[in-house]
Amino acid sequence: MEIMTDQRFRKTFKYLRALFFAALIMLGISILLVIGILVYAKVLGPPPLTVPQSSLIMADDGTVIGESHNGEKRYWARLKDMSPELINATIAIEDKSFYEHNGFDYKRIAGAALADLKAMAKVQGASTITQQYARNLFLAHEKTWKRKLREAFYTIRLEMNYTKDEILEGYLNTIYYGNGAYGAQAASQFYFGKDTGELTLAEASMLAGIPKGPSIYSPLSSLEKAKSRQKIILTTMHEDGYIQKADIETAINEQLTIIGEHPHNQTETAPYFQDAVRSALKNQLKLDERTIETGGLKVYTTLDLKQQKIAEDTVEKILSSESDIQTGLVAMDPKTGHVKALVGGRDYEESSFNRAIQAVRQPGSTIKPLLYYAALENGFTPATMVRSEPTTFRFDDGRAEYSPHNFNSKYADGEITMMQALALSDNIYAVKTHLFLGEDTLVDTVKKFGISSEMAEVPSLALGTSGIRVIELAGAYSMLANGGKDVSPVLITKVENHKGEIIYENKNSTEQILKPDLAFVTAHMMTGIFDRRLNGYTSVTGSTLSDELTRPYAGKSGSTETDSWMAGFSPQLVTAVWTGYDQGQKIELAADKVYAKDIWAEFMEEAHKGMTVKGFKAPKGTVGVYIEPESGLLATQNCPVKRLTYFVSGTEPTEYCSSHLPQYEESEQKQDDHKDEKSEEDVPWFRRFFSW
After folding, report:
1. Residue 80 to residue 584: CA distance in whole angstroms
2. Does residue 582 carry a pLDDT above 80?
3. Which one, 126, 215, 294, 675, has least CB within 10 Å?
């Protein structure tokens, strides 16, 4: 009996010893496993904390005009900028020992497990703020052991590599508050119309209660349940020492104003401009679609909200509701190239096609100032005389002909000056000048002015038969307005990433492209379209606008069978306007032909209100003299019409007009007597060339 007992004891001891060693081995393996997990977590380093965030587009005054269209509102706020009441309320209700544990609250886990066991169901959660943050960042919300293990591993990585404040900041910026609002900043703006740093205790305690069940505890779903949850949070805050007991009643009784609206509308403010900004982010800054939509970018733009509204209101007011005619408008600061207003069509909801940037249309006579700049470079002056009469140009040994016409087939049937040809928009003068310079000259000049659209080397190019974009014309005219400095249309001044780091900043060029004296002379000639003193065989093309304008402007209108243009500038603002039909339909109604001019004039006048009236300042190397417009010679006191005209110094006329002198007949006779004595060399070169 004793022997059997001893054997049984030995056998039991053997089993116990084996179990002990097995336990030691398991403990060792567990310790090694934990150490391995910790080492592996450390080797992997900090997990990336980037989450999808809404990108914001802002006007030049910092006003948010739009955001990315991903359906989720996410804006990052720094912990130091958040309401302390919101931070305390969140910690109190979600994880009161957050600053003490290492990512796992074991006491809370045990309590939750016991409660679940008693109820035989999942009735209590034990996830810490770090665990919830890990889940929001990296994991789906399915209830599986695999997800739980991954959540635990990411929790370890977060705790090992980030401070508690960094984790809390990330959590508050990623937790879902319902109604598409991710993060406290988006939620604060949606529910209360304010930044998270401005929340009161009452607002913060109500907001902190929503994440437990956004569809249940949102004040928009059930104000009663939201208030009940708020009271629990306030009581917990008092128990944890965050607030006094009296604060509970004060907060509960505070009358809250629930907004229930996201602050930024994507399409109401300058939708065509916003589309152009997104295109620039993608095509010019080379940002990918995901970064643009969910990268939390802050895009600072050049848009002037006041001028944009004026532009939109002007288009709506002037274009008849019974007409299908479309429009494109671009307004720019000529010194910086900043686009201050942009209209790409009459109704973005009906058509998002941006006619200010995407449409390539024939510019008509608005190309002529560029042609005449090239002419000035090649020896012409504003007083250069060319014959205006019906002309047929023959090419290829007479096999090809080109017969341009003036508007309404009106001609001077004599010589006119360049300044008058521009003011009257004489086509014969333009084509003759173009052919004299060589067809490649205008092509090269257009490129110099920053226009990248293809130009055809043909005689009709002088009349604007090769298409360009509205924004290109605005950019080209800006170079005339700013004295010839390099300038390109700018939509974006700066871009910041979600961390507030500047990833792009526009740098204005100061390179001199055009000759300042020639740019000014050209710009001053362009003021002539509004000056009736340059009326000749027809009225100046801006005569219908002259009485509406209250300050000096330079400009040029243009028209083809299918396109109507008006572009011009003051020293402070350049605006180009196009009107026409999308499908290239002919513009036949008289009312449709004046829309571009009317839009331009009204916009410029309204946009300049409050600005100092400035004239065009003559640079060094130019001289202004009074010219008699018909002859292009220096005006005398007897000339009934005279106009101040600028020339490059040394090219101004030196001969006085003799047409209005008392001894005119005698003088004319003397000139006739000596006419035969002049040789061909005495005739100016441009008159010899333009004899046809």
Report:
1. 58
2. yes
3. 675
Q: What distance, in Å, lies between the first and last C-alpha atoms of the chain? A: 144
User: In whole angstroms, what is the distance from residue 223 CA to residue 202 CA?
Assistant: 13
365 annotated active-site: yes
Confidence of residue 483 (pLDDT cuts 50, 70, 90): very high
Cα–Cα dist 265/683, whole Å: 68
If DSSP states are collapsed to H, E and C, what string results for 547-615? HHCCCCCEEEEEECCCEEEEEEECCCCEEEEEEECCCCCCCCCCHHHHHHHHHHHHHHHHHCCCCCCCC
Q: Which residue has the tokens 């671009």?
A: 330
Contact indicator for 89, 205 with CB cutoff of 8 Å? yes
Helix axes 516-526, 368-377, angle to 10 degrees: 140
How long, in residues, is the chain?
Answer: 692
Q: Which of the following is catalytic: 127, 365, 388, 631?
A: 365
Phi and psi based region of residue 179 (left: phi greater than 0; alpha: psi -120 to 50; beta: remaining)? left
**Contact yes or no for 619/649 (Cβ under 8 A):** no
Residues 85, 94, 293, 415: which is the catalytic one? 94
Question: How far is Cα 589 from Cα 561, in angstroms, rounded to an integer?
Answer: 11
Q: Pick the residue with more confidence: 446 or 105?
A: 446
Residue 356: what are its φ and ψ, rounded to 5°?
A: -80, -25
Q: What's the Cα-to-Cα distance from 363 to each of 19, 353, 367, 487, 641, rounded to whole Å?
A: 94, 19, 6, 20, 32
Q: What is d(CA 309, CA 312) in angstroms, rounded to the nearest whole number?
A: 5
Say which residue, 81 or 41, is predicted with more confidence: 81
pLDDT at 190 over 70: yes
Active-site residue 254, yes or no? no
Question: Which residue, among 428, 406, 434, has the nearest Cα to 416 in the 3D structure?
Answer: 428
pTM confidence score: 0.74
Q: What is the pLDDT of residues 208-267, one digit of tens each?
A: 999 988 889 999 989 999 999 999 999 999 999 999 999 999 999 999 999 988 776 545
Q: Which residues contact 106 (CB under 8 A, 6 or more apart)?
A: none
